[in-house]
Amino acid sequence: MTSFIKGITALVAIITVNLGGAHVALTVKPIHRLAPAAAAQPATPTFDPVGTDAYTWSHGHSNRPTVFPTPADIAPVAVPGTESPAASQPLAQLPIAAPRPVAPPPAPKPAPPAIVVGSTQQALINSDRANAGLGPLNWNSCLAGIAYQNALRMANQGYISHTNGPSLDLGCGLGNQAGENVGYWSAGINDYQLNTMFMNSPDHRANIMGPYHYVGTAWVVAKNGYAYIAVEFS
User: What is residue 179's DSSP assignment?
Assistant: First the structure.
């Protein structure tokens, strides 16, 4: 009897424990299924309103204004595996511009002559004389040699001056009269400039129009570029 009572008591204890668990509500969790990849993104893209080139998708609620791009806003996307017609052409057939030929540097200008004996000064003198009704002066190498010596002396000393030119001219044996015109031009040899200067000076013009029959002229250029001229008459 005692054993039977103990068994009944144990059964009641088990039922009490089980009934005590009824206060716990059981929750059935739903089964999670993976959504298709296409469903993870909305059908319409939006552009970054900041103005960058970021291309994003809207997820859930967003306070950004949705901008629907027009076909002109979307750049064409190259399809992998395709190539442009130019890429399939041989390199020799591509429209590559030929390099422009490089023009050769201009040839250096020849240096002006340092010494000129027999320039156009004689022709200018004879033109002046012809305009005044006078005969031409003939060229004389003896007078030209003296003109060179005097032009060289002036170029070396750096200024114009007369020394013994007329005396040396008389030594050429061309007559009993002699004269000399000297000058310089800072920009180098210039017969027309010096002839104009001579004709604008009474003393130099008197020699050009003088009672002479021969003339010799010479230019010498100094190291600084100044050109000195001597004109000998006899």
Answer: E
SS3 (DSSP) at 230 = strand
Tokens describing residue 95: 């429209």
In the chain, helix, strand, coil percent, each to 5?
35, 15, 50
Q: Which residues of the chain have pLDDT under 70?
A: 1-98, 109-113
Q: Residue holding tokens 């144990």?
A: 10
Q: How far apart are the first and last CA of the chain?
A: 181
* Contact criterion met (CB below 8 Å) for 116 and 189: yes
Name 139's bridge partners.
215
- Contact at 8 Å (CB) between 230 and 147? yes
| pTM for this model (two decimals) | 0.54
Q: What angle do the packed helices 191-199 and 121-131 form, to 10 degrees?
A: 40
Backbone angles phi, psi at 130, to 5 degrees: -65, -35
Beta strands in 66-210 (DSSP E): 115-117, 138-139, 179-185
Q: 64-100 pLDDT, tens per residue?
A: 444 444 555 555 555 555 555 555 555 555 565 667 7
Question: Any residues with CB less than 8 A from the CB of 161 and at least 6 apart, and which?
Answer: 154, 182
Residue 165 main-chain phi, psi, to 5 deg: -55, -55
What's the burial of 229, exposed, middle or buried (CB within 10 Å: 0-12/13-18/19+)? buried
